Amino acid sequence: MTRSLILTRMGATPEPGLAELPPREPGPGELRIAIDAAALNPLDAKLARGHLADWFPIVLPWVPGTDFAGRVAAVGAGVTGFAPGDEVFGRSDPVAGGAFGPAITLPAGFVARRPAGIVAATAAALVTPAAIALQALDEVAGADGPLVILGSGAVGTALVQIARHGRAVTISGRHAARLAAPGVQVLAAEGGGLTAAIAGAGVVIDTVGGPRQRQVLARLRPGARFLAIAEPLPEDAAVPAGVEAGFAALAGGGGQLDRIAGLAADGVLVPEIANRFGIGDVAAVFSTWTAGRLPARQVMVREG
Ligand SMILES: NC(=O)c1ccc[n+]([C@@H]2O[C@H](COP(=O)([O-])OP(=O)(O)OC[C@H]3O[C@@H](n4cnc5c(N)ncnc54)[C@H](OP(=O)(O)O)[C@@H]3O)[C@@H](O)[C@H]2O)c1
């Protein structure tokens, strides 16, 4: 593949297309990676729709895509630990994007080695969901009591897969049944079982967001933690006395990618991939994804 997905406008119908773009040579501290796989995230759709512009000031034209796996193609001055041909994976800064193309040039700190046996599509599918899951679980590591996870998409799946090895976990969602495993309680997305689980929770991690955030907060007991991942709490949200509530924004760094590689190599993190497609279909898939009509995870793989 030599073409890149490109957006020349944002909004409800961003009209993505394909364009031949020259690869950028790596500067000091950078790597150029030949892309073998790239995964779509809800963030890609939010950015294309023009949301979150205060946090992510995108400049058009823009090549979307943060999560990728591939091979090192060129090494910039001062970079150690990587050589051409190394199998790697990583996450670009969302403003820079660039994963949905033939190659990406970015700081070496945004890249890690891919373990043997973890194919490119698997690694690409893990990056953002596993990274925010690790960060969220680190943030609540000191909190006691049952852990309740709301939402069974890619982030909910990564949270369950990691957390169940250390503590009792409850997962609730419309698609949560597939996550049943030893140490995991599966509940429907609504109902008395979930209400009781939230009332007894030490920690609730919410990957769904929306108006239900307020209801969940109101049910928490003093001492409980609430961590929002899908979106920040509304400014006027009522947080009960004794409840600690906050939002986790993916920070990256801190060896996160190496931890993800280790958990994938150990079989702890296993992403589910709904659809694999080639660069020729990326514009159509991106449009449908942006319209919110596709299940996660959608992964572009290199043809041939
Ligand atoms: N704060 C951050 O830095 C950060 C980082 C990553 C993601 N996020 C945000 O977190 C939220 C969740 O991300 P995600 O990657 O988990 O999204 P996702 O995989 O697209 O899941 C979103 C929802 O889709 C539903 N779903 C799951 N499997 C499905 C299937 N097979 N068919 C149809 N629907 C299905 C789930 O609903 P049910 O729960 O009902 O099953 C899930 O809650 C998004 O808003 C994302 O932008 C934030």
- How would you spell out the order of helices and strands? EEEHEEEEHEHEEHEHEEHEHE
Top CATH class of the largest domain? Alpha Beta
Mean pLDDT: 95
Strand content: 15-25%
What's the total count of β strands?
15
- CATH superfamily of the largest domain, by name, is Medium-chain alcohol dehydrogenases, catalytic domain
Briefly note the structural class of the backbone. Answer: alpha/beta
| Biggest sheet layout | 7 strands, mixed
Total discrete domains? 2
Shape: globular
Percent helix range: 10-25%
Q: How far apart, in Å, are the first and last alpha carbons?
A: 9 Å
Bound molecules: NADP nicotinamide-adenine-dinucleotide phosphate
Residue stretches low in confidence (pLDDT < 50, at least 5 long) are: none
Q: DSSP helix count?
A: 7
CATH architecture of the largest domain: Alpha-Beta Complex
* Gyration radius over CA: 20 Å
Please name the CATH topology of the largest domain.
Quinone Oxidoreductase, Chain A, domain 1
Domain Enoyl reductase (ER): 11-300
GO molecular function, one term: oxidoreductase activity
Protein name: Enoyl reductase (ER) domain-containing protein
Pfam families: ADH_N (PF08240)
